[in-house]
Amino acid sequence: MEKNAKWWIEVAVIIIVFVIGFIGNIFVLIIVHKKNATKTIHGIFVTCLAIADLVLLCFDSFVSILDKFDITSEVFRCTVHLTVVTTGYNAGLFTIASMAVHRYRIVTHPWRPKLKLKGAIIWVSLIWLAAFILVIPLIVVNKLTENGCEEVWPTLGHRQAYTASLMTIQYIVPLLVTAICYIRIWLF
C-alpha cells in the first residue's frame, strides 16, 4: 500500500499529539508526586485527571497508529479499546466537574467542614467506578460482525435511550455542574 502525503501528515500529527500529551501528563504526575501534592485534595484530583488523560492518550493514539498501518485487531478494538477509552474519557470529564464542585465548596462555604484526603480518594474511586459503569451497556451490545465492530441493540429504542442517557451523563451534566459552580463562585 502506497502512502501519500496526507497519510504521513496524519501519522505525524497522531505521534506529535501523543508525545506532547504523554510528556505533559508525566510531568504533571512527577511534579504532583515531588511536591507531595498527592496528600492534598487538589493533588488527588489533578493526579486523577492526568491518569485519565494518559489512559485516553495511550490507548487511542496506539490504536490510531495501528489503524494507519492496517494492523488493528477488530476483537481488541471491539472489546478492550472501546471500554478503556470511554472509561478514561468519562473519568476525565467527571474529574473536571468534581474539581469545580470542590472549588465551589471551598470558596463559598469556607467555614463548613472540608473534604478530607480519605474522602477525596473515595470520591476519585467513585468517579472511575461510575465511568466504567457507563460503559457496561456497550460491552454487552458490541459484537464483532462481518462489517466489523457494531452495537447490536435489542431495539432502536434501547439504542436511542442509551445514547441520550450517555450524552446527558457524559456531556450535559458535567458541563452544567461546572458552569453552575463557576458562575456561583463568580457571583459570590
UniProtKB/TrEMBL annotation:
Keywords: G-protein coupled receptor, Membrane, Receptor, Transducer, Transmembrane, Transmembrane helix
Membrane topology: Multi-pass membrane protein
PROSITE patterns: G_PROTEIN_RECEP_F1_1 (PS00237), G_PROTEIN_RECEP_F1_2 (PS50262)
GO molecular function: G protein-coupled receptor activity
Listed GO CC annotations: membrane
Similarity-based family: Belongs to the G-protein coupled receptor 1 family.
Protein name: G-protein coupled receptors family 1 profile domain-containing protein
Species of provenance: Desmophyllum pertusum
